Structure formats: C-alpha cells, structure tokens
Amino acid sequence: MKMTKSTDERLHYFIDKQEILELLNRYCQAADRHDHDAMRALYHADALDDHGAFFKGLATDFIDKLPDIQAPMEILHHNVTTVNIEIDGDYAEGEVYILAFHKAAGPDGSIDVLIGGRYFDKYEKRDGEWKFSHRVVVADWVNIQDPSIVNLEHPFVAGSHIGCPGADDPSYTFFKLIKRQTP
Questions:
Q1: Residues in domain SnoaL-like (predicted)?
Q2: How far from 97 is each of 61, 83, 141, 152, 157, CA to CA, in Å?
Q3: Are 28 and 80 in contact (CB under 8 A)?
Q4: Overall pTM surpassing 0.85 (yes/no)
Q5: Burial class of residue 60 in the structure, from the number of CB atoms within 10 Å of its CB (0-12 exposed, 13-18 middle, 19+ buried)
Q6: DSSP letters of the chain?
Q7: Res 53: pLDDT
Q8: Cα 115 from chain centroid?
C-alpha cells in the first residue's frame, strides 16, 4: 500500500521549497548589486563555497574576497532557469541552472563573458531559516566577446534606467517592499 503525504506535510514541503527559491533569487540580487552584506546573510557561518579558480573554502572568506573579485565587473547579471530541489527535513539539495553575464574591464578594454552553468547546492534549515551550507559552481559552456559588444549608449536604450552595481542602482530608490542592504 502506497502512503500519501498529508496536506500539512505537502504544505510544509512547498513552503520550504519556496523559501529555498527565494534564497536563490536573493543570491542573484546580492551578486549583481555587489551587496556583500546581503550575500553574507545567505550562508551559514560554516558554509563552504567552491567557485573554481576564483575561490574554494569557507563562504565567509569568499565573501571577504568579493570586492577584489568583483572590482573589474562592470555588469553582473545572474539568471536562474531550471531548478531541481529535493528536501529531506531540514536538509535539501539543489541543482540550479544559471545564465550569468559578466562585462569585465581588462587592460585592453572590456570583455563580455556569458556562462551557462549550474550551482550544486546543499541547504540547511537552522533556527527556522534556510541558508546555503555548500555551493559549487559548474560551468557547462561559455561565450566570450572580446571586445565587449555591450552598448548602453545606443539610441535604442536612450532615456532608459540603467542598472549598475551598488547603491546607485535604480532599485534602491524605486522599491518600498524589496529591501536592499546599505553600508
């Protein structure tokens, strides 16, 4: 006889899954705005982070290095696509597909890097809050444009609000409910 989950168990599962999805979105927001305080709040204190050649170790140490890592990044734009999450009590795992665009300054001008990849995540719910306990970045493909083909001066975007890292981003003054960390 197959046991079915109760409505309460299913609701609890979907609430947990939604909280993890919100964690993923807050990560992208924090990365793109270079908001290191917001990023720090997403990881447990003993969490690990593996960003390949950029960093492997404690997530808190990775976040401490982010100002240097992100210094040449003129644009960061992370997009979560396919999300596969499995939850077992207060532990969960996720395989999260991403498209991450980077416009990075270099000695000979800016380049564009578009990465299609995945995050291999482990999450834990501690004190009622889901956070990352381990994150590994996997690159599946990359497209590099050297020199950059981004053109925010083109007449097509004339008069548009232009996003940027940090507190000068238009989102900091537009939203009332979506809060940003401020230094």
A1: 16-135
A2: 24, 6, 12, 27, 29
A3: yes
A4: yes
A5: middle
A6: -PPPPPHHHHHHHHHHHHHHHHHHHHHHHHHHTT-HHHHHTTEEEEEEEE-TTS-EEEHHHHHHHHHHHHTTEEEEEEEEEEEEEEEETTEEEEEEEEEEEEEE--TTS-EEEEEEEEEEEEEEEETTEEEEEEEEEEEEEEEEESS----TTSGGGTT-----SSTTSTHHHH-SSS-----
A7: 87
A8: 13
Contact 99, 88 (CB under 8 A): no
pLDDT tens track for 79-124: 999 999 999 999 999 999 999 999 999 999 999 999 999 999 999 9
Computed over every residue of the chain, the mean pLDDT equals 93
Q: How confident is the model at residue 67 (pLDDT cuts 50, 70, 90)?
A: very high
